[in-house]
Specification:
By secondary structure, the protein is mainly α. It has one domain. It contains 8 helices and no strands.
Length: 168
């Protein structure tokens, strides 16, 4: 298995375990731990940087941007996939956090109704409320996959910093 895949799987798995541990810790201090897990994208960025640094080290200090981007993207994708999977299993075992997340989402939507009235018509607003009421646990997994892609911006910057100096 080549170094990019090996580093991506290793650091992605470590990232997912750290992110899930963060979520699990939040279950003790926050009634809505799913709503508080967004800061864990910082763990993704940290371990993406470590995966890139490790790859550069393995290649005697030579890292091209495409290699940095590849290892970063795959690390982030694998980490988000595994974290989502762990969250999904956790929700299936204890749906309390999922119910709190749905309730908080509905409360927020209703509390911000004036703001949403400016951008959504009544029919769309009601559809949003209904979709929250009918949400399924697998949507947390998909949400994790989608949200963590924001790390691509940071990953690109890290890759540019760590890449080999000179022509790529």
């Amino acid at each position: 298995m080549n170094r990019i895949y090996r580093n991506s799987l290793l650091f992605g798995t470590i990232t997912a375990l750290v992110c899930f541990a963060f979520y699990w810790g939040m279950t003790f201090v926050n009634p809505n731990p799913l709503g508080s897990r967004r800061p864990d994208v910082g763990f993704n960025l940290l371990f993406i940087g470590l995966a890139m640094w490790q790859l550069k080290k393995q290649q005697q200090g030579i890292l091209h941007f495409y290699q940095a981007f590849s290892v970063g993207f795959l690390t982030n994708l694998w980490a988000a996939f595994l974290t989502g999977f762990f969250l999904y299993i956790s929700i299936l075992l204890d749906p309390t956090a999922f119910q709190a997340w749905l309730h908080e989402g509905q409360r927020l939507l209703l509390a911000q109704r004036e703001t949403f009235d400016k951008i959504l018509n009544e029919e769309t607003f009601q559809a949003q409320l209904a979709s929250l009421a009918q949400a399924k646990p697998y949507q947390v997994w998909l949400d994790e996959l989608m949200f963590k892609q924001v790390a691509v911006v940071g990953m690109t910057l890290i890759g540019m910093i760590l890449r080999q100096k000179g022509a790529d």
